[in-house]
Prior knowledge:
mainly alpha; transmembrane; Lipoprotein; membrane
Amino acid sequence: MRLREPLSFTTLLLVPALALAALACVAVSARQLPLAAAATGTLLLLPVVFRLWTRTWYRGLVLRGVGVFLLGMHVPLLLGGALAYSRIGCGEGGCPELYLLGVLVSPIVGTLSSVVYWLVGRPPV
């Protein structure tokens, strides 16, 4: 009989992080920007508090987290631009709502990228 290993804190924190990101995305699409900002701020505080209480910080972690934030933030921008450009009739800036949605969602995706990196990131060897 095989015993199950207990869930780690990282696994337990990924579920609320994904739920907060989903809440922020839904709030953006519903044009509830204060709720989206609150959910994004809470999403950013989640790994910081977790790291301060449970793990040690190592040199370069914050800088790498900011880099992952910037990389993750550009994914919705590029995706929104590509979708707006690929639609028929949207070539000359006729469909800015897709790109605007990418702009509004990009801080949420960037924050989620940093959260995932800070929760599961390992120190460099």
